[in-house]
Amino acid sequence: MTFKLTPIAISLVLSLGLLGCNSDNNKQPEITTPDTSLPATPIINMAVLKYIDPMIGTAASGHTFPGAVVPRGMVQLSPDTFKGTNADTEAGQNPWHSASGYWDASDYVAGDVLATDLNIYGFSHTHLSGTGATDLGDILVLPYSDIANSENNAFNKATEIASPGYYSVVLNNGNIKAELTTTTRVGVHRYTYAPDADRKIKLDLAHTLTANNGESLQNRVELVDEYTIRGRRVSTGWFQGQDIFFYAQFNQPIAHAMIARDGGDAMDMQMGAVYGSINSPNKEQITYLDFGKGNQPIEMRVALSPVDWEGAQKNLEAETPTYNFANVKVNAELAWAKELATVQVKGGSEAEKTNFYTAMYHAMIAPVEYQDVDGRYRDLLGAIRQADGYKNYSVYSTWDTFRAVHPLLTITNPQHATDLANDLIRKSQETGLLPKWEGYGEETGTMIGYPATAIIGDAVVKGLNVDPQDALEAAKKSAYYRPYDFPQIPDHTLQAVMAGQLSYYERDKCVGLPNWNSVSYALEFSYYDWTIAQMAKVAGDDAAYNEFNDRAYWSLNHWDKEAGFFVPVKLNSCEKEFASDAFNPYSSDALWYTEGNAWQWQWTFMQDLDKLTEVMGGTEGFNAKLNDLFTADANGGENHQDMTGFIGQYIHGNEPSHHVIYLYNRTNESWKTQEYLDKVYKEFYKPTPDGIIGNEDVGQMSAWYIMSAMGFYQVTPTDPTYTIGRPIFDEVTIKLPTGDFTITAENNSSDNKYVKSALINGKPLDVFNSFEHSEIKAGGTLHFVMTADKSQAMAARLN
């Protein structure tokens, strides 16, 4: 590649990977990137982009996607290789792995790498990153020359290129080179066909990622003119009733258009006719567009809208007014470089830098901006609203992301953290309740409790521009079991967001069997109630503080002192379900715990770790319990598929464990925090397709790594306190709005994993090796001195 740089001291490194050869003898289209000119005065260091590898997490259970996206982009334009059908090429594979639409089925540990003639359905415009459930895959596009290849195609891994804002691959059948890039609301395609080949495109509104009962419900499509097609897709699945509109234009005229409807034969499309009217709906509509023979690539711009196809047209005209693929690609790269410039690192290995900046990339994909350029959006009840001075966001995996994604943003991008907290509050004001797991305008109610309170609570106690009273009122509505107060919310949604377990929790101060995830629900309710109490304290509402602070301890009714765990209890009485000596902490019974067992869930009483230490037998007992966790039998029970990344019964692949290593800072063995962190870094985060040990979970696995690699972590969101860990880099500079906060690690190396000393702004750390959020400030420093000698590791102050 050649870049024309203006004379300014920046480094431009755009890593597009290596191109291999196909297995057949046909000549592949040349994979090149055209010369592009950067803006006249570039001010962003682009070198960081070489450390982003979107392929990380696409194998094993990472469930990320490799396609093109900009930070917080509503469009995620990516290849679909796995729908979760358990049929044809997918037979025998776990449909769970269809979450992002792309899955590399290779076993890299065993060396069984699948690299040639891999299935591909095409390229769709919406994808989830790292989830444990499947949806989206809207508006699929597949280029082809021969009708025999219009259903799917094949590709070789060696021809794939994935970089920030860009994806490319060569389709084996037809030798078609596909290139993708995006803006926030527009996906831009460029297809280069073999010389003198037919240039055809399938536009498939029926395509669905099916693993979670995904189904196309209603499609509408119209051939507007010889360059333009628009339409609407309504689908169901995990996101029930998702409604999305598109407006697509081509740089070449459509010579012939045909449409197949609900499994029927393809027929000619008439210009201006709307196929799939309200009175005659079609569940499945597939259009076949023929551009004739020619040597010019077909460039396609597809804009999405959550409101209507007029909104999609405005989005296209505003964000991609001309056909200029190279310009869109460069702007996408600039957008990523600008976002990543907020954190700069020195030292560490190339692999560690790749892990770090790819983690930042993954943590910035969602929540997505979900509104049109004119500010219109649909709320969670489907009403069209007009944003005035704010942005509407979507894709909130709050149970995962309250732990590190949002706390990280309060440091690296406090304005965005503020915007997201206020967006959650506004959603409560618009529709009645705080979101739990919301995606593309639909609330799923997935996971447990009301975790959004931890996000807005953290923003409130850190002094962000979030009204404490508004936050408190939104949180309280979600914390009372009052379904009759929300007749506007559909029953299936309300039952998931306001789970029936809450009624038992309020009545009995525990959650008894046979309630689903009963122990976990009780623990989560009590933690979220504590976050509400902290908001009430800031708001000056003593009555609410007292009420919710009292509720914060109800889950202790599940504590069995003799067994030493939080255990299932009987309905109505809170009596223990099992004799203490008969309880099996290795059981991951779904009636007891969420995606785990008693070993992991004993540490989720985060709201009062002093109290947890007390019930575990004081500091020595707490220390012993931690040691028991990390040395327990990793194969001691039947595990949920989300239970991955074992060290004993610590499971890094799922969120309830993420703070636990840092709890050693509350013991006489604080050096074990550094020791186990070092182990996690080296074993569970790798710059490979299978390099994420569990579901990436919409940024949470990544945000944990980012904060930890910098040298600290927030154990309890809504408590604005951080505790130190094991820094990876020699120096990290965080660009705050008012200046820089710098973290330095003297004498740092791969072997020097222990912290010999640490100072925050020149002062000793507080109790439990901690410091306050207010101490992260412009001109501030966190300074470590590292050592390889465990005997020299600093001890945490315990009182």
Automatic annotation (TrEMBL):
One of its GO terms (biological process) is carbohydrate metabolic process. Transmembrane segments: none annotated. PROSITE patterns: PROKAR_LIPOPROTEIN. SUPFAM superfamilies: Six-hairpin glycosidases (SSF48208). Pfam families: Glyco_hydro_92, Glyco_hydro_92N. Residues 311-787 form the Glycosyl hydrolase family domain. GO terms for molecular function: carbohydrate binding; peptide-N4-(N-acetyl-beta-glucosaminyl)asparagine amidase activity. InterPro entries: 6-hairpin_glycosidase_sf, GH-type_carb-bd, GH92_a_mannosidase_put, GH92_N, Glyco_hydro_92, PNGase. The keyword Zinc does not apply. Residues 1-20 form the signal peptide. Coiled coil: none annotated. Residues 51-305 form the Glycosyl hydrolase family 92 N-terminal domain. GO terms for cellular component: cytosol. It comes from the Bacteria. The keyword Ribosomal protein does not apply. Keywords: Signal. This is Alpha-mannosidase. It comes from Photobacterium phosphoreum.
